[in-house]
Design goal:
The complex is a heterotrimer of chains A (277), B (351) and C (257). Chain A is 75% helix and 1% strand. With 277 residues, chain A is mostly helical. Chain A has a domain of 180 residues: MetI-like (MetI-like fold). The radius of gyration of chain A is 23 Å and the shape is globular. Chain B has 351 residues and is α+β, with helices and mostly antiparallel strands. In chain B, the strands form four sheets. Chain B has a six-stranded mixed sheet with strand order 6-7-8-3-9-10, sandwiched between helices. In chain B, helix 2 crosses helix 3. The longest helix of chain B is centred in the middle third of the chain and has 18 residues. In chain B, 41% of the residues are buried. Chain C has two domains: 41 residues, no CATH class; 206 residues, MetI-like fold. Chain C is built from 13 helices and no strands. In chain C, helix 9 packs antiparallel against helix 12. Classes of the chains: A mainly alpha (277), B alpha+beta (351), C mainly alpha (257). The interface between A and C is large, with 89 and 93 residues.
């Protein structure tokens, strides 16, 4: 096939994405340079005033920090929970392996809202956990409409991605190395610390960063599990866009989030380069 | 008409990323003849075939069929029947549908198509396998269907790209005889690409030995085998005992032995090749033009023949012995022997 | 000794608990989502089947997902074919995958800013365009690997037998890529059918998709109706996952770098 034919075949898809993706991103960037006046009216401008306003507001720093901490927590929990799953899937020769791998990853194709509803039932004031607590005569706990609920929901929602990233990174882990260590008299726990963990460190780093990035991007879980009481970058952007209708602010916060993601993406590439080397 | 060659390659060149893969190939094949392109992998034989098929564009040079320049024609207008190394049978179609595909592309009517598909299947000995999907057929059967598919379009030229390499040894020998018979029967002009010298020698009217994108030698099989034109051809086609020596007035000196050659004398360093079937074990009173002393280092019994390797002072010499008289049984590793061959079978090249 | 399977089991339990509990609660006989349910019935499934707003949203989502999947295939298959055959530079593949790297929230916001002035918010074209951004990359990637998995000499064989490129593509390449094609279509349908965040910016009172209806409903109240609806969505996803896994290998398909 000739190059010109190739370009011709790619042209419709490229054109569609130019219209539906590139253009909106450029408009978003442009919007972040507009300003809003006191009464909230949008004034076209080429100015960094919106960025200055957001940076000058200490609330945004706190909110941004909370977002990062939340994402780091969820990413860490997700990797901790996914690591044994991925390791099990990587090692097992069970005939159920294929099915178990699909089950571990499939939730990411299930509507996020449906999974949040599940968590509301488990964590809610009249939910599973509180029913168990009251059965044992223990006081009730509040696990929704607060940070705790968001942390739990977010952890679960990024786990399939973490599992996938770990499995991909395990490609270089040779099961024979672990067997070799154990034939040399190494105890399983020692083998794990001395052989398995160092060999999978790259995969862990990549999985953590992926989970972290996706946590920062997540909107449905913080919005629904937070019940309007949890403020992170994603919910701020949504509120600015649809509630306060401050589009320049929404755009500027988006640009800030994208920059964070690009930095993290760069780190991820660097890690995978190093672990591939 | 009989004098005009059917297929002509003229100064054909093709390079990939600056390295020439096919380097000024010139060939002409008479109608109904089978020519084998023989060479190691990477010698450019498959690229040559692909340029004839129109699957690859030459950088320069021409391909002519019946004197007509087809170089610029795309493959779908060339009417070349190609049998691919992997057969490339369409897995979602039955054997019949595979064979009918080319006829359908030519716009052959349904009834005619059915008749020609049946004939093609019968020709390759699979009259009852028309409804089988390729994956249910054995390797040999798939190969036959691929051949039937290529022949069904009544091609100008039949192109065979290592068509037997995916089969096991016994089947390979059976099928090569069968393919040759079919090719002779339909009178197709054929270009056959292979790295297997036995295949090339057994099937071809003409063998072109290729080396680094060029034709090292072109000739009938026996000529290529008995009179290799270059050391490369001598090494690649068939096995040989190989020595190195220096010319002096009487012949070639190899250590303290003297080798006589037929034909003209030379000078300087010479590479010497002797085919195993020309070398015999000599009894104590027998004489030969050239003789070496040595010890047997290996005896490989292959059934009709035994391959014996004799270690001489000048190097190892492979010998082929008939097993009919059982003499090979007396040979053990370490047995001291004398070997000899005639001056005429001593091939040499200036080093 | 068997520490890994045990810990893996904990991970699985955590991951699957929300889905399991939703399935259980959808059968609750109660007025509210309280645990444990006092009785079991199919009343909320019945209620769902009679909820006009939900049914309308479901119809919208079905039609939208089918349309988006079709457009994504029409645009994505040729591009994937060219890329798999090396007829377009690899950077094009990168560009076509780019939307998967950005948060859908930001993409949705950008689309809102573009489509609002054009009066395309809460319209079919607007929603379809929005969904296309996230669906097209999936189709391109899936079809690229489907085409790349085909032996190149098949198309060549068709050509030497006299098939022009287009006929060879239709008669040989496309049928051979059929499993990948079906997997792409199914996955494209599901991704569009489940798409929530971009849609949030692009729907309006006149045009609502099912995930948005579920999202809004969940924002305001929680009764077993949402659980029943969630189960419907889960079953749909599971079906698609099964189809894709059979035809193209699910974990291979969904992996994102």
């Amino acid at each position: 096939m000739r190059r010109s034919t190739g370009w011709l075949l790619c042209a419709p898809a490229l054109a569609a994405l130019a219209i539906a993706f590139v253009w909106p991103m450029l408009v978003l960037l442009r919007m972040s340079l507009n300003v809003t006046d006191e009464s909230g009216v949008l004034i076209p401008a080429w100015s960094l005033a919106t960025y200055k306003r957001l940076i000058g507001d200490s609330y945004n720093w706190g909110m941004s920090w909370d977002s990062l901490v939340l994402s780091a927590t969820a990413a860490t929990a997700a990797v901790l929970l996914s690591y044994p799953m991925a390791l099990f899937l990587f090692r097992t020769h069970s005939r159920w392996r294929g099915l178990l791998a699909v089950v571990a990853v499939a939730p990411l194709l299930v509507s996020g809202t449906a999974r949040v509803i599940g968590w509301l039932v488990i964590l809610g004031d009249h939910g599973l956990i509180n029913a168990v607590l009251s059965f044992f005569g223990l006081p009730a706990v509040t696990l929704i409409n607060n940070w705790a609920g968001v942390r739990i929901g977010l952890t679960e929602s990024v786990m399939p991605y973490a599992t996938l990233a770990l499995l991909a990174g395990f490609g270089r882990l040779d099961p024979r190395l672990e067997e070799a260590a154990s034939t040399l008299g190494s105890l399983p726990i020692r083998t794990f610390w001395r052989v398995t963990l160092p060999l999978t460190a790259g995969a862990i780093g990549a999985a953590w960063l992926l989970a972290f990035v996706l946590s920062i991007s997540a909107f449905i879980t913080p919005h629904l599990m937070g019940g309007g009481r949890v403020f992170v970058l994603a919910t701020e952007i949504y509120d600015a866009a649809t509630q306060t209708l401050d589009w320049p602010a929404a755009a500027a916060l988006s640009v800030y989030t994208l920059m964070l993601l690009f930095v993290l993406g760069g780190a991820k590439v660097a890690i995978s380069r190093r672990s591939a080397a | 008409m009989a004098d005009t060659p059917h297929l002509v390659l003229e100064d054909l060149c093709r390079g990939f990323g600056g390295t020439p893969v096919v380097d000024r190939i010139n060939l002409s094949v008479a109608r109904g003849k089978l020519i084998a392109l023989l060479g190691p992998s990477g010698c450019g034989k498959t690229t040559t075939l692909r340029m004839v098929a129109g699957l690859e564009r030459p950088d320069s040079g021409r391909v002519l069929v019946d004197g007509r320049d087809v170089t610029a024609l795309p493959s779908y207008h060339r009417r070349m029947g190609v049998v691919f190394q992997s057969y490339a049978l369409f897995p979602h179609m039955t054997a019949s549908a595979n064979i009918a595909f080319g006829l359908q592309m030519q716009g052959v009517g349904r009834a005619d198509r059915r008749r020609r598909v049946a004939a093609a299947l019968a020709m390759v000995g699979l009259p009852n396998h028309g409804n089988a999907k390729p994956r249910t057929l054995s390797g040999g059967q798939q190969q036959r269907v691929a051949l039937a598919r290529a022949l069904a379009i009544e091609p100008d030229v039949l192109l065979l790209d290592e068509p037997l390499s995916a089969l096991d040894a016994k089947l390979r020998e059976e099928l090569r005889a069968e393919m040759r018979a079919i090719q002779l029967r339909v009178g197709a002009t054929a270009l056959f690409v292979t790295h297997d010298q036995a295949e090339a020698l057994a099937m071809a009217d003409l063998v072109a030995v290729m080396d680094h994108g060029r034709i090292a030698q072109l000739g009938p099989p026996d000529e290529v085998f008995e009179h290799p034109a270059t050391p490369f051809v001598a090494r690649f086609v068939g096995r040989s005992a190989r020595f190195e020596g220096q010319w002096d007035a009487e012949g070639i000196r190899v250590g303290n032995m003297l080798l006589r050659t037929g034909g003209a004398a030379g000078q300087g360093t010479a590479q010497i090749f002797v085919r195993p079937h020309h070398i015999s074990l000599l009894g104590s009173d027998t004489v030969a033009d050239n003789t070496f002393e040595g010890r047997v280092s290996a005896v490989d019994y292959l059934g009709e023949v035994a391959h014996v390797t004799v270690q001489t002072d000048a190097g190892p010499a492979p010998i082929e012995m008939s097993t009919r008289d059982g003499a090979w049984r007396d040979l053990r590793a370490g047995t001291q022997v004398r070997i000899g061959w005639s001056a005429d079978s001593t091939l040499w090249f200036p080093a | 000794m068997k520490v890994t399977p045990l810990l893996a089991g904990i991970g699985y339990a955590f991951l699957l608990s929300p889905l399991a509990i939703v399935a259980l609660m959808s059968l609750s006989d109660d007025q509210y989502l309280t645990f444990p349910p006092h009785g079991f019935s199919f009343r909320w499934y019945v209620a769902l089947a009679h909820n006009a707003a939900m049914l309308e949203a479901a119809r919208t989502s079905l039609a939208l997902a089918a349309t988006v999947a079709l457009i994504a295939l029409l645009l994505g298959v040729p591009a994937a074919f060219a890329l798999a055959r090396g007829a377009a530079p690899a950077v094009v593949a990168g560009v076509l995958a780019a939307p998967l790297l950005l948060p859908t929230l930001v993409i949705g916001l950008g689309l809102l800013m573009v489509l609002q002035p054009l009066g395309l918010v809460a319209t079919w074209p607007g929603l379809a365009l929005g969904h296309l951004v996230v669906v097209l990359p999936f189709v391109v990637r899936l079809m690229m690997s489907a085409f790349a998995g085909l032996p190149p000499e098949m198309a060549e064989a068709a050509s030497t037998l006299g098939a022009r490129p287009w006929r060879g593509f239709v008669l040989v390449t496309l049928p051979m890529a059929l499993p990948g094609l079906i997997a792409s279509a199914t996955l494209a349908f599901l991704v569009s059918f489940d798409e929530t965040v971009i849609s949030l910016f692009l729907v309006g009172p006149r045009l609502v998709t099912l995930p948005i209806a579920l999202f809004r409903y969940t924002e305001s109240r929680t009764d077993p109706l949402v659980a029943a609806l969630a189960v419907v969505l889960i079953v749909l996803s599971a079906t698609v996952v099964l189809v894709v896994d059979r035809l193209a290998g699910f974990t291979r398909t969904i992996a994102r770098s």
